[in-house]
Specification:
Helices cover about 75% and strands about 0% of the residues. With about 160 residues, it is an all-alpha fold. A two-stranded antiparallel sheet has the order 1-2.
Length: about 160
Amino acid sequence: MHCEGGITIALLPLISTGCIVVSAVLMAFGWSFIRRRKIETHRRFMLTASGFALAFFIIYMYRTIFIGNTSFGGPDRYLPYYTIFLVFHILLSTTGGVFGAVTLTLALKKNFVKHRKLGPWTATIWFFTALTGMIVYLLLYVFFPHGTTTSLFQAIFGTG
């Protein structure tokens, strides 16, 4: 499956999933550094993790708007379970994104009392977001055949 410019449709989800996994790994390291009072190293890792999370979001939104998202291509009997899992992942990722933005803003404003309280919750949510995102990727692109992909613009305006 290709889109304009020869980019394989499955390449962008792979890159975006990789970004979110790298983000979670960097966040884990950042968390470990703050527990050892290595504040500057913690700051660098968390900012880099945030950068990878932002890269994920940009790629995801580009793909959603211009290329589309891939539907579940596995057996119909698994579709209700996949849908429930996907909704859980979407709720988790939305919550994680909001928590991440608030936690990062608190740190940048040097409100470390609130940052310290929210940070562990944010990191935990983000770890589960990355894990469930990786599982969604595997279900859509590795374990089962690809479903159909339609761009947002094609779905709305019927253009091709």
